[in-house]
TrEMBL record:
Stored PANTHER family: ANAEROBIC GLYCEROL-3-PHOSPHATE DEHYDROGENASE SUBUNIT B
Residue ranges constituting the BFD-like [2Fe-2S]-binding domain according to the UniProt record: 499-549
Spans through the membrane: none
Name by which UniProt lists this protein: FAD-dependent oxidoreductase
Domain of life: Bacteria
Key words, A-Z: Oxidoreductase
Entries under Pfam families matching the protein: DAO, Fer2_4, Fer2_BFD, Pyr_redox_2
Organism field: Vreelandella malpeensis
FAD/NAD(P)-binding domain location: 116-396
Claim: Oxidoreductase is one of the keywords in the record: yes
Domain FAD dependent oxidoreductase: 610-964
Length: 988
């Protein structure tokens, strides 16, 4: 079958490994994925909903080819070399746990590496950027995740192969080899097999990039960064696209060009763009049976031919190469089905056939006309930038046309030299927007020189030739893609049963039923889990965005969820670093709501009996309780329901005090927090009642809570805390090591005992708050969201609230349930509500086998830990987060990630080799340990419903507030929770 063809000879030893007990032959240096695909094993991992998945992107971005290798789980087969004697098995959806703790010596810090210019990505743009920066005198470090440099375009032959004359087998690969050699000769430091897992900008002048090599994390602190991470192929979901044997065109090409292998034929190549023709021609040259090329554009139209002629004026060599691909296909009698698209891929456990349909002028799929029997499919419908690092560092992005297709993609707002709105950050090549390899080379050259100049080095060459080359290839790409112009809509092939999120198995129907008008991608993600898997939404977020906003055009980077670290999964053990403990919370000033209405906004008036400001758990519970009593209630929110602290909550239901709410670390001496315990106990019971009333599974579980201790001092601390809790009616019991081990068999040997509270539990806030909102609406509550409050005044005995959109709301009574913004709402009403924002982080791991069934905490460390119903381990405990620069949304901090993970794996060593797949931050409410409830003194009709333990207390806060509003009193003494407890309260 040898490709590029017969020049290649095997230069590596033949080896054998086993896959699911079967012996597989390979060459040393060949990737596991290529060896498995070549042997006909197209599936590698098990899916969440059953079924099998396999090699898809070929570049380590999708995590579809995960396998277990010699006891190590979660290994990407496409990025891992085959070695003699390996034992390889399919990866289950829930990762196996390693119960033996790591024997690595604990580190006190990660190694810090400094450089002038860090280049991320070893494709055309990254290689040329590194060379240009080095030629200008800069110290340059180039990092790339692959075993060898070259990227997708310049991908090189695996070391398992060589040519008789030592040269690359074609001009494209040879050009890459020469550029790689030039980079080496320029003495650019080059790190291969290096995963970039994190990007941090916690101060305006600071850049920190987290990388991982062979299981060890390092931190790079460059003066300038060139992001040249390239692009991933844009997904085009159709029924059956997750079957083993379906892969991106680039993934198919990587198998062929780097590893001289391909899936068993016949193979169909389908999509839009010139890459598909190249790959199909290379398959033919390699002797692979190609069933056809499906192209959604009409390549044979006179318009397309004329546009091809226009493109040839800018780059005749590239057009000549393209015509050569067409000639190869014609000679091999490979049919080209232009003006058509894949409507469905059929098969049970593997691809059996593909259904094609014509693309109509309106971009829809016409009646299916043709079925082809094939065994593998390469899908390539254009590209989308790998923008995660740039977005994490604060680079402005916007949607822009990437090609002449009907799709806009997120692209960086950058200048000709790659510079952007953040000093010291440069975006080169397709990381900032698609343009092809030749354009990427020019952009890399200009960005590398500009980065060196930023670092203080003299750049002698003005870059005129590169700028001219950049203009030439921009014109070429525009003309080329006009020839491939296709009206095909990105959702044309989608049915309700089509899987959209490959990682979690979420269908289009589930997404469509999981949102309401006005929802954003982040809220749909929380509701449905789409985008919460290992690939972090790379292959589904844009589809979800289009599904929920098909009636509006793409416009903002904020149409997608905010990117978070880690960029790609990394083991807990690699990141964990012990940090010191502290008292209190790190407060931040949250971005204020606009103080004025939008000019020219239409004014409309909405009247209600009660106006609730805030649609989180407290506001939604209040609205539900009021509406069920027949009160006309309207709910306002600056965002979407469950969009801030409630939606970002980890779901712990606390009934005993956390360690930092008792003793020396507690705010206000711990008294306010202790006074709240009876409310927490009652509210946890209310959650249990709601779990049966709300009509859906909110994943409530009375699992019990265990706070562990490691020495006698901590045990004495727990004894004093438990005594206080028992005096308040909380049944907290001190337990010994044997009892702890029975509840958590994998607990650390360092644990000597703990405090057990059977009343504690856990809940899924992604399900619970939306269920409260639905129940409130069913009872008659009205929700008005996405509109910030900008004025509150008393008019004719009523409260009148103005919003940015120009709407006015009137009600005799207001409930301030605005969470971290409750202080701002109070100021608008003329009163101080001493509420502060204190962002906290949460971390979640890949789904794992059962490891802990209780809510776990520590007597002297910041830790809360639990395992969700689907197997994810959720790690928190009050570690501070910050605000992103410059956008201002909450973001985890590097120190907090390291420290939080250290405590987690210290208490549960079995977590050490489990991978973190995402972190996030939410705005915690910091008061004094107790809520602020009841009517504000001096402001008749203005009620507060604000609490720093909001998720546990949400239902009870709603009930208490509804009692006050409907009965004039409640069943609880609210004196400890009144505003009057704060000294110096000012009314304005």
């Amino acid at each position: 079958m040898d490709a590029l063809g017969r020049k290649a000879v095997k230069a590596a030893a033949s080896i054998t490994f086993t896959f699911e007990g079967e012996h597989i032959k390979a060459l040393e240096g060949q990737s596991l994925a290529s060896a498995l695909v070549g042997a006909g094993h197209l599936s590698q991992r098990e899916g969440r909903q059953g079924g099998l998945h396999g090699h898809y992107c070929g570049m380590g971005a999708c995590f579809e080819c995960l396998v277990n290798v010699d006891g190590h789980h979660g290994v990407r087969a496409c990025m891992t070399p085959a070695q003699q004697g390996q034992t390889v098995t399919r990866h289950p959806y829930k990762s196996p746990l390693t119960h033996t703790p790591s024997h690595a010596t604990p580190k006190s810090s990660h190694e810090i590496v400094t450089t002038d210019v860090l280049v991320i990505g070893g494709g055309p743009a990254g290689l040329q950027a590194a060379l240009s920066a080095r030629q200008a005198g800069a110290d340059v470090l180039l990092v790339d995740e692959r075993p060898s440099l070259g990227g997708q375009y310049y991908k090189q032959l695996s070391q398992a192969y060589a040519t008789r004359d030592g040269k690359a087998p074609d001009k494209q690969m040879q050009a890459g080899r020469e550029l790689i050699q030039a980079v080496k000769e320029a003495k650019v430091r080059s790190w291969h097999d290096t995963l970039v897992w994190g990007a941090f900008r916690e101060r305006p002048e600071q850049l920190r990039i987290g990388v991982e090599q062979a299981g060890e994390a390092k931190i790079i602190e460059p003066r300038a960064v060139v992001v040249a991470t390239g692009a991933t192929e844009r997904s085009y979901p159709v029924p059956g696209w997750t079957l083993p044997g379906v892969m991106t065109t680039g993934g198919l090409q990587t198998l062929l060009r780097s590893y001289r292998t391909a899936p068993p034929g016949p193979v169909l190549v389908a999509g839009n763009g010139p890459l598909n023709l190249q790959v199909a021609a290379e398959l033919v040259a390699a002797g692979v049976e190609v069933a056809g090329v499906v192209e959604s554009a009409r390549l044979t139209s006179l318009t397309a031919l004329a546009r091809t002629g226009q493109a040839s004026r800018h780059a005749p060599g590239l057009i000549s190469a393209g015509l050569g691909y067409l000639l190869t296909l014609k000679r091999a009698r490979v049919p080209i089905f232009d003006g058509q698209a894949v409507a469905a891929i059929e098969g049970d456990d593997a691809v059996q056939s593909v259904v094609l349909a014509p693309v109509t002028a309106s971009g829809e799929l016409g009646e299916a006309r043709r079925r082809l029997h094939v065994k593998a499919v390469g899908l390539g419908y254009g590209f989308q930038p790998q923008a995660e690092i740039g977005r994490l560092l604060g680079v402005e992005h916007a949607y822009a046309p990437a090609t002449a297709s009907a799709v806009n993609v997120l692209s960086a707002d950058r200048r000709a030299d790659g510079s952007c709105n953040i000093d010291g950050i440069f975006i080169a090549g397709e990381a900032g927007g698609f343009g092809g390899a030749q354009l990427a080379l020019a952009q890399g050259a200009l960005a590398g020189a500009a980065a060196a100049k930023y670092c203080g080095h003299e750049v002698s060459d003005s870059g005129a030739s590169w700028r001219e080359r950049q203009r030439t290839h921009q014109h070429f790409q525009t003309a080329l893609w006009r020839a491939f112009e296709s009206p095909l809509k990105p959702l044309a092939g989608l049915t309700d049963d089509t899987v959209v999120c490959r990682c979690e198995g979420i269908t289009a129907g589930e997404i469509r039923s999981g949102y309401e008008a006005g929802s954003d991608v982040a809220s749909v993600k929380r509701q449905t889990r789409a985008g919460m898997g290992r690939c972090q939404g790379r292959y589904c977020a844009s589809t979800v965005s289009r599904l929920i906003a098909s009636d509006k055009s793409d416009g903002s980077q904020f149409d997608l969820p905010a990117p978070q670290n880690p960029i790609k999964p990394i083991t807990i053990g690699a990141l964990a670093i012990e940090k010191g403990e502290w008292a209190g919370h790190r407060r931040v000033d949250m971005p204020r709501s606009p103080s004025r209405q939008t000019p020219g906004a239409a004014r409309s008036v909405n009247d209600a009996e009660v106006l609730v400001i805030g649609a989180g758990v407290a506001g939604s519970a209040t609205a539900r309780a009021l509406a069920q009593r027949g009160v006309d209630v309207a709910v306002l929110d600056r965002g979407l329901p469950n969009g801030q602290a409630s939606g970002g909550n980890a779901g712990s239901l606390h009934v005993q005090l956390l360690s930092f709410d008792f003793g020396a670390k507690a705010e206000s001496g711990g008294g306010p927090a202790a006074s709240t315990l009876p409310l927490q106990q009652a509210s946890a019971s209310l959650w249990e009642q709601l779990a049966s009333e709300l009509g859906c599974d909110i994943e409530f579980k009375r699992s019990g809570g265990l706070m562990v201790a490691e020495n006698e001092v901590q045990m004495r601390f727990l004894e004093r805390k438990a005594a206080l809790e028992r005096s308040l009616g909380i049944d907290t019991q001190i337990v010994g090591r044997s009892d702890v081990e029975r509840k958590v068999p994998t607990v650390s040997e360092a644990v000597v005992g703990g405090a057990w509270c059977a009343e504690e539990g856990k809940i899924n806030p992604l399900l619970a708050t939306p269920a409260l909102v639905r129940a409130a609406k069913q009872a008659g509550a009205r929700f008005y969201t996405g509109d910030a409050v900008c004025s509150i005044e008393r008019v004719d005995g009523q409260w009148q609230v103005g919003t940015r959109s120009g709407r006015l709301y009137r009600a005799p009574r207001i409930v301030n349930a605005a969470g971290a913004w409750a202080g701002e709402i109070g100021r608008l009403a003329g009163i101080d509500v001493p509420v502060h924002a204190a962002p906290l982080q949460m971390i979640v791991t890949e789904a794992a086998e059962p490891v802990v069934d209780v809510l776990l905490a520590h007597a002297d460390r910041h830790l809360t830990l639990k395992q969700a119903a689907n197997g994810n381990v959720i790690i928190g405990g009050g570690w501070p987060a910050g605000l992103s620069i410059p956008f201002g949304y909450q973001r985890p901090l590097l120190d907090s990630i390291e420290g939080n993970l250290w405590v987690a794996q210290h208490v549960l060593p079995a977590l050490n080799r489990l991978r973190v797949i995402r972190s996030w931050a939410a705005v915690n409410i910091n008061i004094d340990g107790a809520p602020i409830l009841g009517e504000a003194p001096g402001l008749p009709g203005f009620f507060n419903a604000v609490t720093s333990n909001g998720y546990t207390l949400g239902p009870l806060v709603g009930q208490i507030t509804a009692d006050l509003l409907t009965r004039g009193h409640g069943d609880w003494d609210l004196t400890p929770f009144s505003l009057t407890r704060f000294e110096g309260l000012r009314l304005s």
